[in-house]
User: What shape does this take?
Amino acid sequence: MSQRRFTAELERVNGRLSALVRAYRETRLGKYGLLAPTLVSVAAVMVFPTAILVSYSFNPYDSGTVGVGVTLAHYLRAFTTPLYQETLFRTLWIAAAVTAIDFVLGFPLAYAAVRKGGWVGKLIVIATLAPLTIDLVVRSFGWFILLNGSGVINSTLVTLGIVSAENTPKLLFNEVGIVIGLAHVMLPFMVFPIINVLHTIPHELEEAARNLGANRATTFTRVLVPLALPGISAGVLITFVVSLASYVTPALLGGGVRVIPVVITETFTSTSNWPFASALSMILIAVALVVIVGYQRVLSRLNGVGGV
Amino acid sequence: MATASDPNRRLDWLLARAGSIGYQALVYGTIAFLLAPLAIVVVISFQQSAYATWPPEGFTLRHYAALPEQLGFLGVREALLVSVELAVATGIVSTVLGALAAFAIVRYEFKYQTTLETVLISPLIYPWIVVGLSLLLFFNRLGDVLGVTVQLGFFTLLAGHVMVTLPYPIRTIGASLQNYDHSLEEAAQNLGATELESYARVTLPLIQPGLVSGFVFAFILSFNQYIVSLFLSGSELTTMPLILFSLFYNTAPATLAAIATLLMAGILTVIGVLEYLFGISEFM
Assistant: This one.
């Protein structure tokens, strides 16, 4: 009896809701109703907080308290203090180095994954996916064991007699450590967009180029790269921009060598100078925006149309 | 003539051969580069020395045997629980919001379609550290302006985590909606299914891989999220990445390696099972 009543009730709800969907599906309300929750969330957790960040970055900071008013002091401090200039410059070139290394490693890997297929292709996809699912601290810890003064790499070099125990290369707690660690973190972000686009390029095009007398290098630069450009540009952009803003890897592998996100966190946690931390954050966003916009300009000129 | 072209051809052949060997070396070298830091952690967790000396000496399980008492002491158990709860909540909220938005984008024409898509995807490149910092300032300002004190904790963490994970479900669900033939839904409705029935019985099962991979992405990103949590966790809660970060310098490498190995085994098992059941890697 109650079973039947439940079914009837369900039937009624089903009919009501379906009628509602039918009535609103083609209307403006139905269309924006679907988007509204997400747009409102993005506004609430991204737009408003960023606006507050902007306002903080112009507030004066005096003897431990945030004042009222407008000042450019924090931006001036960031751009004129040699320490912060160096840090900003270091952050930029580390991101550039990571991007270059990941392209050199990532393109052949993506190409092999697509063209070799079979178990090699599977192995590549798994090897690229697996690190992505592992905590950044764990991955940095792996590099710590590999790279430290008496770590796996240096011990092996000494055992093989390539370097003496006193002259082992310093691979950790400097820029080298940060670049290696970040290149590892960002490689999947380079590889997957390129894999996706390479899947769409027929192998026959390369064969045709080879048959017409192009060598490997020419086939690569004149056929593969232009066709794979959408994937490459997506990979390059995301690798560069995310590298700029990474915290965990540089904080753990950089030692005393700092990048902007590390300075932001330190400023915030150890001095309570929120305005200065906000100004540094704004600079980070501005750099990322300039890179993205400039990059798309260059690409659209290269491509004629489109972009990332 | 023949004497001139022969060495040339030989050189060509040699170059091609060297090129192909170099290419192979690069590919397998890169695979090794990707797996080395994960594999070494596992190796270290099974060797004798607490300080991870190299080459390793002897096999032991003692670092694992010592874990149960250490974990309670270090607060790992509570942190793991918080991280799992948070990751599940983030996954659900992010997937639901992402599914609605993806449905809207794929099914309807908007005036500023590209701008809209860019806005929805923008958290992908918005610096995580700025998400953490600006949300913290925002919650603080809410307290000043509205007089509501926002207690940092689970829900502030959830807001930050949803923010950084949102683009992923939008992308995976959008991709599966695009692949799927809209007319199937109409066919079901023509055959007498109501709107709700056709969504539940036809649309949902068909976009299931996109939903599951969106959820998995959001789960993993949230579970491993450090910097956003650092700003938003407050003083009462800690998450697994926060604990791991503090253990990095404050515990014997072999102990951290054992914890990390168990964590990796756990997450890779979950991913492996989901991949087997739903084929989530298709939507990378």
